[in-house]
């Protein structure tokens, strides 16, 4: 293989592609739902159990997937899980009832839970500290791209073939990605296309104490206050993601009386905004580091806080007179959420060893998804009596609490903070 300059950006691009296929696969069901519910005679309540099976599997499995990646390595680990979620997606086409669909969905959720821990682990292994924010944002942007691509692709497959074909295609894309991954991916220690210069740039830009290779220990991770310092803000932040993903179309239809055509025309916009949010968080932190000389951790905390302040905008969604203003506020919410979410997700690689980043990111993800689940159940239980407004207001405030926790719970090593303050130039 010839040497490739800036290889790390190609690698994170490949991981982003993997995240896109991961989100495409999981989003297929929602788009195909109207057709397949009718054909398989599945009720709305049974459909909610199918969705629940995915959420439960995904929530529980994130640390398990992260741990497997930490132990057997990214190349084989990510490939195994990608094959599993792709084959399970394709198998959806064989389901004949809601029960078999729910089983497939639960298992698929477990395999899909690899995406974020794998992305974080790649970021930790391949990037110097100063670039991790942007790298983390780039692969995480794949989530929204996948969610945006699903509707046109799935509708096209259903119109030209049938709903089964939609699952076959999105699953097959995951397999194609796996072949690419197995062909192109190697760790930075042995990638034949990595130049010596770039390898030095990567290792010299990483914190020495994070490069050691102890195996992850669950007990030890859960005892650290830095873990809770990132996991609790995720618990408080992720309800926004769940709300934008699962509830906003329903809100637009039932409260703003939008028809399907209007929803199709506008509902992807918050995800586009979310993509920008993903990409902005890292560079904002780097900019602050460069201009003020503050430590990396403080710069991340500032970026998160900015996102949290911006998240006040969606608190006003329910008060907007026009549906279009409400939509604009939802978009600000998508942007702000991913700006702060990417930032806190990336902090797993700022605070934990490369050999345990997968497990830590997975555990924090479990907290995030638990927050999503609780919030979603609360909306489901209360929306018919109190409406959506209190929930939007709540979303606006939760991240401010998250910011306070991030500032108070996370402790950075004194020597790192001092080094950053003494040599601000080293930060970029
Ligand atoms: O809050 C949302 C996150 O940033 C989102 O992009 C992913 O982490 C998502 O939760 C997932 O696990 O697929």
Automatic annotation (TrEMBL):
Residues in Major facilitator superfamily (MFS) profile domain copies: 11-414
Principal place of residence: membrane
Full protein name: MFS transporter
Locations listed in the record: Cell inner membrane
UniProtKB keywords: Cell inner membrane, Cell membrane, Membrane, Signal, Transmembrane, Transmembrane helix, Transport
Family membership noted in the UniProt record: Belongs to the major facilitator superfamily. Phthalate permease family.
Cellular component terms per the entry's GO annotation: plasma membrane
Catalytic activity: aldehydo-D-galacturonate(out) + H(+)(out) = aldehydo-D-galacturonate(in) + H(+)(in)
GO function term, MF aspect, one: hexuronate transmembrane transporter activity
Membrane-topology descriptor: Multi-pass membrane protein
Keyword Phosphoprotein in record: no
Transmembrane spans: 7-26, 46-69, 76-95, 138-159, 165-184, 268-289, 301-320, 326-348, 360-384, 390-410
InterPro entries tied to this protein: MFS, MFS_dom, MFS_Na/Anion_cotransporter, MFS_trans_sf, Sugar_P_transporter
């Amino acid at each position: 293989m010839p040497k490739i300059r800036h290889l790390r950006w190609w690698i994170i691009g490949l991981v982003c592609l993997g995240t896109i296929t991961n989100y495409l696969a999981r989003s297929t069901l929602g788009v195909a739902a109207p057709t397949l519910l009718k054909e398989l005679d599945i009720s709305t309540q049974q459909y909610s159990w199918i969705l629940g099976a995915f959420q439960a599997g995904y929530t529980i499995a994130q640390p398990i997937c992260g741990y497997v990646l930490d132990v057997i390595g990214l190349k084989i680990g990510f490939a195994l899980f990608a094959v599993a979620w792709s084959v399970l997606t394709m198998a959806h086409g064989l389901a004949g009832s809601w029960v078999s669909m729910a089983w497939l969905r639960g298992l698929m959720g477990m395999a899909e839970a690899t995406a974020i821990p794998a992305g974080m682990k790649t970021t930790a292994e391949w990037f110097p500290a100063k670039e991790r924010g942007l790298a983390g944002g780039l692969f995480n942007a794949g989530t929204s791209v996948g969610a945006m691509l699903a509707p046109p692709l799935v509708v096209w497959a259903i119109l030209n073939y049938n709903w089964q074909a939609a699952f076959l295609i999105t699953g097959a894309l995951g397999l194609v990605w796996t072949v690419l991954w197995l062909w192109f991916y190697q760790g930075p220690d042995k990638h034949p296309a990595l130049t010596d210069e770039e390898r030095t740039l990567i290792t010299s830009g990483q914190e020495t104490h994070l490069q050691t290779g102890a195996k992850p220990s669950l007990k030890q991770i859960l005892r650290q206050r830095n873990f809770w310092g990132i996991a609790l803000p995720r618990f408080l932040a992720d309800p926004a993601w769940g709300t934008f993903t699962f509830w906003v179309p329903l809100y637009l239809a039932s409260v703003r009386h939008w028809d399907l055509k209007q929803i199709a025309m506008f509902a992807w916009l918050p995800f586009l905004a979310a993509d920008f949010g993903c990409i902005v968080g890292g560079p904002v932190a780097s900019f602050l580091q460069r201009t003020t000389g503050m430590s990396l951790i403080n710069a991340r905390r500032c970026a998160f806080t900015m996102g949290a302040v911006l998240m006040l905008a969606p608190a006003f969604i329910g008060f907007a007179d026009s549906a279009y203003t409400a939509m604009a506020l939802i978009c600000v919410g998508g942007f702000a959420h991913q700006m702060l979410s990417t930032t806190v997700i990336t902090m797993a690689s700022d605070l934990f060893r490369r050999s345990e980043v997968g497990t830590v990111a997975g555990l924090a993800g479990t907290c995030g998804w638990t927050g999503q689940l609780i919030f979603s159940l609360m909306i489901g239980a209360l929306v018919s009596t109190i409406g959506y407004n209190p929930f939007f207001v709540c979303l606006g405030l939760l991240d401010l609490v998250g910011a306070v926790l991030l500032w108070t719970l996370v402790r950075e090593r004194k020597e790192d903070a001092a080094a950053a303050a003494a040599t601000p130039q080293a930060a970029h």
